[in-house]
Design a protein that fits this description.
The chain is of the alpha+beta class and 324 residues long. It is built from nine helices and twelve strands. Helices cover 39% and strands 25% of the residues. It starts with a strand and ends with a strand. The structure holds (R)-mevalonate (MEV).
Length: 324
């Protein structure tokens, strides 16, 4: 095989963010906006990368230089992913051209970096005929993300690899696909771009002298995520909504919610949502609201009234797959 196209979904954190970095569970769903990665074998041992979506239009280096030197931000995850998989198979004599195309804006926090990492690992492994399992793809992709960010639970990688809706514990200690038939969510974008690592560090710093309090908050989040798993499977929206609200209160205590998100959440609940919370690291990005059958439109209107953008996504999307 000399060429392959692979795609992977974005993700939406449902419950458990931040606590999941520290050995607690979260629930994440894959969304139907996908990242596409095309990998082509070249005659000479070079790495070439094209990603017009993130302004990388022509990037080329000898394979011996991969992972070294100043790597443009937009190329980092794909380049380190290629380095990881070639290191895994001890292959230093192949030429690869990687092209990425995203269906979603990297602004929303839907996980474009993790989706492109997973696609790259899957595509190169298929080209080399490795037949990796999903868990092996997860492990190599997670290693790539840790190499670059130093921090992260890997929940976004799991969503990109496995798809669907997953109960997940830090580093893939548990990756449990949930049988979710329905998930009536409205997603609102705050218009503010947030950086995950900055927010994870911010929480650590602001609780440096209150470690017990931080442990208590994380434990409480862990307990409610566990309860939310059953509520979600049983489609008990009242209960799930209450747990989302409780999760939002705890995220506020962590100091990661912001006025704009608080307002979008408040108006969504006033408009009849069962529950609403921020989704992801906080500091911006998106919020989610659980709506009733008739309530979707009014919740959407409320989010717009609070200055948010409603983003149409389908949840429970398929995981990484070969396109052609
Ligand atoms: C960010 O979307 C979610 C965090 O829990 C970080 C992570 O799990 O890697 C804050």
């Amino acid at each position: 095989m000399s060429r392959i196209m692979v795609s992977a979904p974005g993700k939406l954190m449902l419950l458990g963010e931040h606590a999941v970095v520290y050995n607690h569970p979260c629930i994440v769903t894959a969304v139907d906006q996908r990242m596409y990665v095309n990998v082509e074998v070249l005659d000479e041992p070079v790495f070439e990368f094209y990603a017009p979506d993130v302004q990388v239009v022509s990037y080329k280096k000898p394979l011996s230089e991969i992972g070294k030197g100043d790597i443009p931000k937009g190329a980092r995850f794909v380049e380190i992913a290629v380095k990881e998989i070639l290191h895994f198979v001890q292959n230093d004599n192949i030429g690869l051209k990687v092209t990425t195309k995203s269906e979603f804006s990297s602004q929303f926090g839907f996980g474009s970096s993790s989706a492109s990492t997973v696609c790259t690992i899957k595509a190169v492994s298929e080209i080399l005929g490795l037949n990796l399992t999903n868990k092996e793809i997860f492990d190599l992709s997670y290693k790539t993300v840790l190499d670059i960010q130093g921090k992260g639970s890997g929940f976004d990688i799991a969503a990109a690899v496995y798809g669907g809706t997953i109960y997940f514990v830090t580093g893939g200690k548990i990756i449990e696909p949930l049988d979710v038939k329905k998930l009536p969510l409205v997603v609102g974008y705050s218009g503010i771009k947030a950086d995950t690592v900055t927010l994870v560090n911010q929480v650590k710093k602001s609780f440096a002298n209150r470690q017990d309090k931080l442990t208590e908050i994380y434990n409480n989040i862990g307990v409610l995520v566990y309860k939310a798993k059953d509520a979600l499977i049983n489609m008990d929206w009242q209960k799930l909504g209450k747990l989302m609200n409780k999760n939002q209160d705890l995220l506020r205590e962590l100091g990661v919610s912001i006025k704009k998100l608080d307002n979008m959440i408040k108006l969504a609940i006033q408009a009849g949502a069962y529950g609403a919370k921020l989704s992801g690291a906080g500091g911006g990005d998106c919020m989610i609201a659980l709506h009733s059958v008739q309530g979707k439109l009014s919740v959407q209107e409320a989010i717009k009234k609070a200055g948010g953008d409603v983003i149409n996504v389908k949840t429970n999307a398929e995981g990484v797959r070969i396109e052609k």
